[in-house]
């Protein structure tokens, strides 16, 4: 079975508490976009195999595609004998776009079909919780509010038609480290999540763009913080209605209403940043609720 695995963007990200299990309570508005990895899942021969076009990716349970397969086996009792996963990655790793989590979610969907398990999206998302905090959202996809660790999901009105220019600097920051910094810092600004979801409900693209905010932008190491601020200014100067960092970075994106302006911004940023992409929002799976 051949399938796509979609990158996600955080239109907003707020950290609202620390949990006893060391994780954090979050409130995030998530959006799938048309930047994808390709995954081939087959059953052939014996054993379990994983390969990818990126030699440095782990081939054990640190690879969320394989971890998802093992969690699926635990939940359903199905055999993984002969399972072969081949990943062709286009989503930059450590980019804040849930590339690995998306791969895990895609493998859950593939195994559900290949083993004829007929699990619902809600059941697949519950298995995804054991794989990683972003996996339940990636199983659902589209426009959604994610709360708790990321597993409490509410589908939202899809974004009106628009474009995103994504730009991934070469650096990345460790996610656990950045959560550690936020624990010891007073959060000065927070996103207006309620306002953002209201703008989605009324199709107010400009309102959405103006409310995009991520609390992690403020706690980056100074050098990275200024580069993110600069990238945001460049995107706005190029005609973006709003710009923000996704996840714990390092990708920064601008939201555009106009395709010609988005194309111009893409061409401009691509000169300095090879990992620059022009994409659109998408809803990869039908809404299950
Ligand atoms: O679940 P996952 O392995 O993707 O999470 C990566 C790291 O992000 C965790 O080890 C944790 O440090 C942090 N995290 C968190 N709270 C969340 C999600 C992730 O503290 N809700």
Question: Topology, pairings included?
Answer:
Blueprint: E1 2-18, E2 24-43, E3 49-52, H1 64-76, E4 83-88, H2 99-114, H3 121-129, H4 135-140, E5 143-148, E6 152-155, E7 163-167, H5 175-183, H6 193-202, H7 205-211, E8 213-214, H8 222-237, E9 242-245, E10 252-256, H9 259-272, E11 276-279, E12 281-282
Parallel strand pairs: 1-8, 3-4
Antiparallel strand pairs: 1-2, 2-4, 2-5, 2-12, 5-6, 7-10, 7-11, 9-10
The protein binds cytidine-5'-monophosphate.
Describe this structure as you would to a colleague.
This protein has helices at residues 64-76, 99-114, 121-129, 135-140, 175-183, 193-202, 205-211, 222-237, 259-272, and strands at 2-18, 24-43, 49-52, 83-88, 143-148, 152-155, 163-167, 213-214, 242-245, 252-256, 276-279, 281-282. The model has no long low-confidence stretch (mean pLDDT 96). The chain has 289 residues and is of the alpha+beta class. The chain is globular, with a radius of gyration of 19 Å. The protein contains 9 helices and 12 strands. The protein binds cytidine-5'-monophosphate (C5P). Residues 23-24, 26, 132-134, 149-150, 175-176, 179 line the site of cytidine-5'-monophosphate.
């Amino acid at each position: 079975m051949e399938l796509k695995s979609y990158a996600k963007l955080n239109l907003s990200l707020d950290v609202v508490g620390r949990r006893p299990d060391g994780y954090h309570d979050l409130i995030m508005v998530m959006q799938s976009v048309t930047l994808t990895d390709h995954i081939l899942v087959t059953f052939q021969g014996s054993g379990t195999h994983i390969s990818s076009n990126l030699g440095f990716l782990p081939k054990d349970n640190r690879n969320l595609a394989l971890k998802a397969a093992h969690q699926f086996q635990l939940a359903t009792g199905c055999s993984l004998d002969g399972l072969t996963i081949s990943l062709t990655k286009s989503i930059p790793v450590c980019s804040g776009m849930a590339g690995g989590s998306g791969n895990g979610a895609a493998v859950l969907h593939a195994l559900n079909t290949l083993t004829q398990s007929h699990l619902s999206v809600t059941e697949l998302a519950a298995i995804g919780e054991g794989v990683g905090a972003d996996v339940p959202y990636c199983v659902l996809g589209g426009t959604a509010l994610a709360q708790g660790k990321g597993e409490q999901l509410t589908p939202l009105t899809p974004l009106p038609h628009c474009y995103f220019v994504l730009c991934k600097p070469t650096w990345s920051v460790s996610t656990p480290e950045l959560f550690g910094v936020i624990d010891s810092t007073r959060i000065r600004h927070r996103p207006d999540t309620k306002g953002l979801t209201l703008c989605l409900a009324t199709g107010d693209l400009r309102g959405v763009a103006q409310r995009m905010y991520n609390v992690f932008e403020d706690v980056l190491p100074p050098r990275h913080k200024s580069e993110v601020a600069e990238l945001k200014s460049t995107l706005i100067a190029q005609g973006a209605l709003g710009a923000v960092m996704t996840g714990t970075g390092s990708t920064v994106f601008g939201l555009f209403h106009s395709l010609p302006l988005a194309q111009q911004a893409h061409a401009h940023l691509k000169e300095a940043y090879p990992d620059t992409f022009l994409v659109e929002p998408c809803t990869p799976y039908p809404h299950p609720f």
